[in-house]
TrEMBL record, chain A:
The chain crosses the membrane at residues 12-29, 36-56, 62-82, 103-123, 129-147, 154-175, 181-203. It is a multi-pass membrane protein. InterPro entries: HyfE-like. It comes from the Bacteria. It is found in: Cell membrane. This is Formate hydrogenlyase. GO terms for cellular component: plasma membrane. Keywords: Cell membrane, Lyase, Membrane, Transmembrane, Transmembrane helix. GO terms for molecular function: lyase activity. It comes from Methylomonas lenta.
From TrEMBL, chain B:
It is a multi-pass membrane protein. GO terms for biological process: ATP synthesis coupled electron transport. The keyword Thylakoid does not apply. Coiled coil: none annotated. GO terms for cellular component: plasma membrane. This is Hydrogenase 4 subunit F. PANTHER family: HYDROGENASE-4 COMPONENT F (PTHR42682).
Amino acid sequence: MNIEQQDFYTQAILSMAALVGLTSFLMLGQGRLLRLIFVFALQGLLLTMTTALAAYSLDSPHLFISALLTLVLKVIFIPWMLRRQVLLMNMHRDIEALKNNTAVMLGGASLMVFSYYVLHPIVQTSSAIMLNALAVSLSVVLLGMLLMISHRQAVAHVVGFMSIENGLFFAAIVATKGMPMVVELGVAFDVLVAAVLFGIFFFHIRTSIDSLDVDRMNRLNEVDQ
Amino acid sequence: MIAAYLVLLIPFIGIVFFAFAGHKQDTGRLNVRFNAITLAATVWLAVNVLNNGTILSSDKAFIIDSFNVYLIVLTAFIGLTTAIFSAPYMEHEKELGKLTERRLKLYYSMYQGFMLAMYLVLTTNNMGVMWVAMEGATLATVLLVSLYRTPESIEAAWKYFILCGVGIAQALFGTILLYYAAVQIGDGDNALLWSVLFENARKLNPEILQIAFVFMLIGYGTKIGLVPLHNWLPDAHSEGPTPMSAVLSGLLLNDALYAVVRSKMLVDGATQGNTAGLLMMGFGMLSFLVAALFLHRQKDIKRLFSYSSIEHMGIMTFAFGMGGPLATFAALLHMTVHSLTKSAIFVSVGHAAQLAGTQNMERIRGLIKTQPQIGWGLLIGTVAIAGFPPFGVFTSEFLVLLATMHSYPWLAPLLLLGIGIAFAGLFRHIQPMVYGEQPEGQLPIKANLWPVMIHLALVLWLGLAIPDFLANWFSQATLLISGSMPL
């Protein structure tokens, strides 16, 4: 089926999926923390727009609440908190030298292919469009993990963590028009608490190792010293 | 039904109450009382279930059946006994200057928060809410792992937070896929209710459910501590306060396994096969063997027993995966006896570490000479967890072994070998700690070992004879999970 034959909503969702996927790749290759946080906020904004669009087109008003929650949490509160931490730690001028950037990017691309492969059985039950949307969400989740593996700064880890949440949220919106309200509120609450806890943790890590470089946290392991 | 709401309401009041009054003199005792009232409510709930069978609340938000009712009582019971242990323990830690008043407030408030999350995981009928509560349990305990604010504890808590957070995100993806499959057969708002899904399991698309289950197993499996997703577990157990280790090992791991089994029941209904079970068997066996080997090279006493927890969770996952009535019955029993024994061990370990002033096993010596109760408590607990008759762990492990010989005979030697290795791993460390000469200047401390004795007595009782009502619940749960009655 051709993309021009789809209705406006489906086309819009597909473009949004593409853009969300793109932001994930942008984050993956980003060594500057402030820009990383900016791209993350952008991804949140795309999610908000997708949710609002779904709420409008599918006539399900409860999605407007989710859109609002996403806007407040993922576009405003979390980026603001992370930005404050970066400025506080005076890390905004540092550029993290990413090791094996090419390999990481190629790895990211293969993760995307892998997501399509894993979710392919879904085609049986619905359109190829759904496969696209779900596969992009899964790859956002996996790219979030890759981001956490390839970066050393705790701030980047939090961005990766939250972008995993973004991927899940996107899946819930496009595949199932959002989760039941009680679940959605619960997830939003968990994200909020997690964000606050991350803030507290930054403070603790800073006071204990005087840096937010998680590679320095290596006291606990099973390797003989 | 009122009882179920009470079970959730009391810990909630506890969170708010301790957040404001947690630093007062008698907080430890108040915490005990809160848990005692919850236990009473759960017993009331259990009596209701015993008389009337499965309870489904009118809005279908909560379900209490024979599978979760005994876990709820067990949760409340271990919550209470650990609270009894924790009161003087935390007081002692405060005297040592490891804790401030604010942190005690946090500790007691989050103790109740953790209990609330556990009850919610167990009682809810909504797979989505189950996920939320599971994540809530991480969030409640993460600051408790770093309660002492040492660099090690902060590292452990960070690891716990990140690994479990990322892990459990996979379970959410699985839940979304499950919802996606459920929406296709209609009934949007009720589509995540477990009871509805279970009734319609045959209609769900098996391919999608299989993918969903893989994600759920990885997600909740991180919390169970399945190898290779177990890295957070020994760190979080060893660096946090000991009462936390007791409830993490005794309750959190169980409840994560509970979530996996609930998902497995849906997948089995949809696929009419045992693919999900095979996955669980593989992960379970791997965890069991790896953890048994790792027992040998531990230096920290709490790390030792957290690896032992991984080992036992591996056995249970394996047994649930095998899926026959006998194996399922054994796994249910093993969940109970492992929780009781392991929390008793952590209580003794906490006292032993306070007595010796260290968690390093090479410097803990002569426990029986210094304070016989602690030494014997630790020794008998270890004997029980290693699977010696007549304790309950022996019974359940023996049943697992029987079921394995029946269905997968070629795996039985591996199982026996693993149990042997684990036994050796535990005793080579425990023996010099409890026997042997005491170091100079080691003095007895104020200790409350009632929780240990009660737990071990119960485990002994379960090893000799399972009371009728419990056996009945186990059988019904087995029927629910595996489709046929045991024996």
